[in-house]
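Bump. Still looking for Cell division protein SufI structure tokens.
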Amino acid sequence: MKRRQFLSLGVATLAAPAIISRRTVAAEPGAPLPIPDVMEVGPGAGNILSAIKGRAELIPGVESDTLGYGQDYLGPLLRFQRGRTASIDVENRTDDPITAHWHGMHVPGYLDGGPQLAFGPGKTWSPELPVDHPAATLFYHSHVHGRTAEQVYRGLAGMIIIDDPEIDDPLPRDYGVNDFPLIVQDRSFDRSGRLTYDLGMMGRMQGFHGDDVLVNGAIRPKLTVPAGLVRLRLLNASNARIYDFNFTDGRQFHQVASDGGLLPSPAAMVNLRLAPAERAEIIVDFSDQSAIRLVSQNVGSGGMMGGGNNTATLDVMSFDVGDASTSGPVQLPGSLPATVSDLGEPVRTREFILNISSGNMISSMLNNLIGQDRQTMGINGEPYDMSRIDQQVQLGETELWRINADMMTHPFHVHGVSFQVVTMGGRAVNPAEIGWKDVVHVEGPTEILLQFDKPATIDTPFMYHCHILEHEDAEMMGQFTVG
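Sorry for the wait, here they are.
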């Protein structure tokens, strides 16, 4: 019997059927989409990002205990400009250590905001970020080891937009008019409508999956868009859920950017799959003025414990179309100001296996069932150790990393660099079609090509890890230096 099949049978034997108590407070869809305020972050003083405890009405009329950067839940949209230093003061006004990790940014390790840089209540971290990154949609969030999942779930996260004044962006870019951030998360609520984070055994092993989909902190909201081309910046900020986005009328749209920035040319598609922490910018033509909904197929976790995929549809948000068009572009260009450059031949190859249960699986499951211990996970058979450097990389060299998993699929993230995907599931892919990435969904043997040009020391190394946040907290992470 294969190990995967054995685990499915073991969990079926150990786990009693779940009894779901539905809440008595309704979560009505259709509230207007909240548009995050913008914080333009430059070299001067006065840019303050305060992590605070909040009381947010995620369900109207019911307050939940939340966290946020400068607000009750989530944070402002941070706007950086390439070539300018971004000076920012991150204050900790919560009760626990926090960080601010600039997910996807090319900065040295001492500015990255990883777990080694956690700082306690009442403290302030004041990094000066040299913005050396192409125009892109990035992600920021707390990254305290063992607490990342709950802190992000409670709201310590937000979106970053990097602008590049050296390029002529031919796409819609009037923020809040024809260019919209969509931070997509799944969350659960108790019977009274309060936000809840109860992991249980399955949540620990497969990552937490919520019952409701929020966009920018609102449950299944509505957005009124102009009749024309609209840019949607999609960020999967869920702890573990994979989305397969499409529109209810089956309309075609075009992807114009991935994690690390613009694609060389728009890519036509009718559905778009994003794993946790992946981003994509898409252009949707609303000139027909049809009211439609954005939905997602409910994608499973690759079959672990019988999880598999199922065909249930998740409502994400709806769109109404106004009468007026905007002064933005009326048609998509055939090409975009981006290229996937030649990184050259790799000087070495490294192998990574993402492991679930490097110890006794059944014992771990029993401990989880009775509320003891947490699921053992790791990479290459080793759980994360903050005092151990797992890899030493040479500055400026190109490497090939081969990643695979022994149980289920995982979104694999590397700090401090954007990479090119060479193969996925053992099949060759065209890196130009996928674009620059910092997260890759590992569903079978996967190869990525990386060139490291930012240093990281023993004291403040870079991380590589699964971006299912519960897995990251449960030790599926390693760290490396660049020098």
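The radius of gyration is 21 Å.

Edit: fixed formatting.
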